[in-house]
Amino acid sequence: MSDFKELTEALVKFRDARNWEQFHNSKDLAVAIGIEAAELNELFLWKTPEDCEEANRTRIKEELADILAFALLLANKHGFDIREIVLDKIKKNGEKYPVEKSKNLATKYTDL
Amino acid sequence: MSDFKELTEALVKFRDARNWEQFHNSKDLAVAIGIEAAELNELFLWKTPEDCEEANRTRIKEELADILAFALLLANKHGFDIREIVLDKIKKNGEKYPVEKSKNLATKYTDL
Amino acid sequence: MSDFKELTEALVKFRDARNWEQFHNSKDLAVAIGIEAAELNELFLWKTPEDCEEANRTRIKEELADILAFALLLANKHGFDIREIVLDKIKKNGEKYPVEKSKNLATKYTDL
Amino acid sequence: MSDFKELTEALVKFRDARNWEQFHNSKDLAVAIGIEAAELNELFLWKTPEDCEEANRTRIKEELADILAFALLLANKHGFDIREIVLDKIKKNGEKYPVEKSKNLATKYTDL
Question: Which chain C residues contact residue B43 at CB under 8 A?
């Protein structure tokens, strides 16, 4: 079994034991991802990029796990294959950011 | 090879071809996740939860893929094992949300 | 004195008493606004739009105040006049959303 | 008339000309603030804090104005007095962050 499938099954089992699917509409799952992303950002707030690399590893792990958990649940709700959607997006980004135009540049593709 | 490893390798290859690791400090990766989460939320803005389920599937896939991509890159930067951190978090959440106390409730554990 | 000026002065006084200007670069102030926005969103998470109107008023006030505080500090850092930038944006939005095309529609201007 | 009142009236007039109050429940207004905050953050993404101070001023103005606009509309919906809620929050923060404990420190009050 793939990793994503294993994790998704564990998440669904956790959710269903609590009968939480009733709350997990797409909109609220998206809001939840945004909230967890903000909690991740809070770990780095007011810190220089260098000091951020010293931030609390346990907390980073937990916030990343929360983001991934809600992302997997939303993907599962829509029947998306994680492997496929990420590989498709990498391909699409390759067209938006050709190597020769974007090398060493952090510029958004709309401004390249 | 695990799915996560395969995707992480594809993301790192894409990043390194453009020499973008120089921009990918933890703080900016976290900000990037937050931005992609907001783009996902925008797909559902001003819509009822029911109408959200009809939202553009292609766009949802792309925004979810962006969130996952930056999350995998941040995990890779810190050497985290995705499978492990998500399973650890599920276990921890099980302690914060015991089935008997949280069933059918969307209440935050601090208010249970 | 204008309200904005009064509030900005109170915020700057608070900041300077703690010597916090050293942390208040534009990037971190923007991140802080995003974090406070997520804390506001958390008050409404997993709730129907109707139930949201019953949410904790004290908490909504506090999160809104935090968002406004960091927004005023960022505006002050760049010397922006709040009244002017908001009135300018309303004018600009009027061009993006002409009444006849956008009435009763929650559609983004790029899709109108 | 206070600045806030003037801006709120202009925003309400804009909203009502398009009959948009039907979309402006508290939950979606909060999501909208989060989206605008992310657009502000995008202006600074992958930039060093120093380079951020050189970012596009026009875009910063616009994103700040959008954040303020939705914050004022949400405050108006709940009948909050902006001046009062911000001054109340400054007072509350003064108790969480006493000068002697927080001077020169970016530490969150829970860790002080």
Answer: none
Instruction: Return d(Cα D32, Cα B109) in angstroms, integer.
Output: 26
Tokens of residue B104, six digits: 């059918």
- Per-block mean pLDDT, blocks of 10 residues, chain D (112 long): 92 98 97 98 93 88 98 97 97 96 93 86
- Tell me the residue type at D110: T
Q: Is the ipTM of this complex over 0.90?
A: yes
Q: What's the CA angle centered on C75, arms C71 and C76, to 5 degrees?
A: 115
Helix axis angle for B82-96 and A3-17, nearest 10°, is 10
Distance CA A41, CA C11 (A): 23
* Helix extents (H) in D1-112: 3-17, 26-42, 49-52, 57-78, 82-96, 99-102
State the Cα angle at D74 between A74 and C90, rounded to 5°: 100
Integer Cα distance of C33 and C63 in angstroms: 10
**Contact with chain D for residue A31, Cβ under 8 A:** yes
- B67 and A CB contact within 8 Å: yes
Q: How far is CA B34 from CA A32, A90, C51, in A?
A: 11, 19, 26
C-beta separation of A73 from A24 below 8 A: yes
Indicate the helix (H) or strand (E) that contains B12. helix B3-17
For chains A and B, CB pairs below 8 A equal 186
User: What residues of chain B lie within 8 A of the CB of A78, using their CB?
Assistant: 57, 60-61
d(CA D32, CA C108): 12
User: Encoding tokens for residue D12?
Assistant: 């309400």
Question: Which of D15, D27, D41 should we substitute to test contact with B (largest number of B Cβ atoms within 10 Å)?
Answer: D41
| In contact, D71 and C64? CB cutoff 8 Å | yes
Residues 6+ apart with CB under 8 A from D82: C3, C7, C68, D4, D72, D75
State whether residue C30 is helix, strand or coil.
helix
The reported pTM is 0.97
Longest dimension (CA), chain B: 51
